[in-house]
Amino acid sequence: MGKVVMYASVSVDGFIADDNDDPGPLFEWLTSGDVPLDDGGVLKVSQASYDHTRAYWDSIGVTIVGRRVFDLTDGWDGTPPSGIDHVVVVTHRPPPDGWNPDAPFHFVDGVDAALATAQKLAGDRIVEASAGDVGGQLFAAGYVHEVRMDVAPVVFGSGKRFFGTVNAQQLLEDPEVVVQGNRVLHLRYPVRH
């Protein structure tokens, strides 16, 4: 089984979006360089960010998200983001009306079912857990092996927390990777178990 990585861009004060679910300047780093990160050339980052991010994106087999993220992104129009093969959506509701049943999205009830489905689909590739409430639930359950953050130089003051509703202390190991890019600091922490 591949490892489980909790990931997102985050403000220096620990938020992945403001109170209105707007990530605002958290993603400036994705357009602040001259190296194309995606096939369409919309995302352009520094060389350091490209080397770090592209290799990570290419190693992801499945991303787990909550229904809120799915709804906010309109399900990425049925195409998983960043070239990922599958998305597992944690939800208590059925897929939206008119949803293409052949799209590589899997709707499950709860993080245990999400992890089981994701690991089966990912094989030995990475299972990425989107930060926020669902990622926080996976983290609190002890399923997360590594925390990756793209720390943007912004302070929100309040909003959607990186670790969701986790309110218990958890120690991480020292960062294995620290990469500075334009408008971002990429960090990778192994989780102590």
What is the arithmetic mean of pLDDT?
95
Cα separation of the termini: 17 Å
What structural class is derived from the secondary structure elements?
alpha/beta
Number of strands: 12
Element pattern in H and E: EEEEHEHEEHEHEEEE
SS field, number of helical segments:
4
**Fraction in beta strands:** 25-35%
Form type: globular
Please provide a written account of the structure.
By secondary structure, the protein is of the alpha/beta class. It has a single domain, classed as Dihydrofolate Reductase, subunit A, CATH 3.40.430.10. The protein has 4 helices and 12 strands. The strands form 3 sheets. The chain has an 8-stranded mixed sheet with strand order 7-6-5-8-1-9-12-11, sandwiched between helices. The chain has a two-stranded antiparallel sheet with strand order 2-10. Strands 3-4 form a two-stranded antiparallel ribbon. The longest helix has 13 residues, at 47-59. It is globular. The model has no long low-confidence stretch (mean pLDDT 95). This is Dihydrofolate reductase.
Compile the SSE list and pairings.
Blueprint: E1 4-11, E2 15-17, E3 35-36, E4 44-45, H1 47-59, E5 60-66, H2 67-72, E6 86-90, E7 105-108, H3 111-122, E8 126-130, H4 133-140, E9 146-152, E10 160-161, E11 177-181, E12 184-190
Parallel strand pairs: 1-8, 1-9, 5-6, 5-8, 6-7
Antiparallel strand pairs: 2-10, 3-4, 9-12, 11-12
Domain Bacterial bifunctional deaminase-reductase C-terminal: 3-184
Protein name: Dihydrofolate reductase
InterPro entries: DHFR-like_dom_sf, RibDG_C
